[in-house]
């Protein structure tokens, strides 16, 4: 602002340009009413300084800017929505894997898992928990897909809450299994030794028969005998009290050309032996403990990998559901599909 040369209305100082403008205005020609009319130059200056703004152009500019922002926001919502749909589809499939794992534990009768699930109530409980978690996971994946595609905030909110609860439950179960792994190994060893001690040709119940058949299958397929070693079979009641020279048939060494995956059951006798010395048995000498533990670790590693994959997808689902909920401003229940 320039230096003040005069006083304006109310004692407010006027700048140089304002004083000059007033002087030019006063040099105009007086009109019929006696008022001083500004000169032509002053009128042109006034028109230039007080030109009416182009409201249409301003409106077009603002509309274009808002349209661009709106398109960007819509594109962001679409990307988030379809990413959430994709992750929930994977979530649904992994839930099916967990469900299948639990069903496999209960249905498999031809492997060591049959021995575990028949003898150990904790494994049966774990199988039912896996089936329940898998079923709920599949339902949550389906719920997330519907909520994402139709942009329904109530479904997305419900999906977020239940997904968070499932994630907490999975972490809790994993921690419990990790800190009880030694107890599980000890329980398995005691269980196998009970099977070996009480093994007999004519089982007293279908449960015992299933356990014996499962253990015969393990020894034949893994090519091992006993738990720690084949000497464990000397604790068997029938071998100790039999007048014949007996040894477990499922432990017998079989030539590769004769091995047709036929599992032998019961006890075999060898008339060529003059005494029942375990060192003379034609059986595998290595125990099944290390091989069974390796088998369990491999399968537990697969289960752990599946659980980690599910947890990662759950975290991504939580983040995407929050982002999508924040961009959906109002609930439109008309978008909920009707069946």
UniProtKB/TrEMBL annotation:
Q: Where in the cell is it found?
A: Cell membrane
Fetch the InterPro entries from UniProt.
Answer: Tetraspanin/Peripherin (IPR018499), Tetraspanin_CS (IPR018503), Tetraspanin_EC2_sf (IPR008952)
Where is it found, in Gene Ontology cellular component terms?
Answer: plasma membrane
Q: Which UniProt keywords apply?
A: Cell membrane, Glycoprotein, Lipoprotein, Membrane, Palmitate, Transmembrane, Transmembrane helix
Tell me how this protein sits in the membrane.
Multi-pass membrane protein
Q: Which residue ranges run through the membrane?
A: 82-107, 127-149, 156-179, 300-325
Q: Extract the Pfam families matched here.
A: Tetraspanin
Q: How does it assemble?
A: Forms homooligomers. Interacts directly with IGSF8. Interacts with EGFR. Interacts with VEGFA and PDGFA. Interacts with ITGA4. Interacts with ITGA6; this interaction reduces ITGA6 cell surface expression. Interacts with ITGB1. Interacts with TLR4; this interaction inhibits TLR4-mediated signaling pathway. Interacts with TLR9. Interacts with PLAUR.
- Identify its protein family: Belongs to the tetraspanin (TM4SF) family.
Q: Which PANTHER family match?
A: CD82 ANTIGEN, TETRASPANIN
Q: What is this protein called?
A: CD82 antigen
Give the organism the record lists.
Answer: Microtus ochrogaster (Prairie vole)
């Amino acid at each position: 602002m320039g230096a003040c040369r005069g006083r304006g209305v109310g004692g407010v100082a006027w700048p140089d340009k304002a004083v000059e403008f007033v002087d030019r205005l006063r040099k105009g020609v007086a009109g019929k009413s006696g008022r001083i009319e500004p000169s032509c130059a002053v009128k042109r200056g006034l028109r230039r300084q007080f030109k009416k703004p182009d409201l249409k152009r301003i409106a077009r500019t603002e509309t274009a800017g808002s349209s661009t922002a709106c398109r960007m926001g819509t594109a962001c919502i679409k990307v988030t929505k379809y990413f959430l749909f994709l992750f929930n589809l994977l979530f649904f499939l992994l839930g099916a894997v967990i469900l299948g794992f639990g069903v496999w534990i209960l249905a498999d009768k031809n492997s060591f898992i049959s021995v575990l699930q028949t003898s150990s109530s904790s494994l049966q409980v774990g199988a039912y928990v896996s089936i329940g978690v898998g079923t709920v996971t599949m339902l949550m994946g389906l719920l997330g897909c519907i909520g994402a595609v139709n942009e329904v905030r109530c479904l997305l909110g419900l999906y977020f809450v239940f997904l968070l609860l499932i994630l907490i439950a999975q972490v809790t179960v994993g921690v419990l299994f990790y800190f009880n792994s030694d107890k599980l190994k000890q329980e398995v060893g005691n269980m196998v030794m009970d099977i070996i001690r009480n093994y007999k040709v004519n089982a007293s119940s279908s449960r015992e028969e299933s356990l014996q058949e499962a253990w015969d299958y393990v020894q034949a397929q893994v090519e091992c005998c006993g738990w720690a070693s084949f000497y464990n079979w000397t604790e068997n009641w029938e071998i100790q009290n039999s007048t014949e020279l007996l040894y477990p048939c499922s432990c017998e060494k079989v030539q590769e050309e004769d091995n047709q995956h036929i599992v032998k059951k019961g006890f075999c006798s060898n008339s060529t032996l003059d005494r029942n010395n375990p060192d003379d048995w034609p059986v595998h000498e290595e125990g099944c403990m290390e091989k069974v533990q390796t088998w369990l670790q491999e399968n537990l590693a697969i289960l752990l990998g599946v659980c980690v994959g599910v947890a990662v997808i759950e975290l991504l689902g939580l983040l995407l559901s929050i982002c999508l909920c924040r961009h959906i401003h109002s609930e439109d229940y008309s978008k909920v599909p009707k069946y």
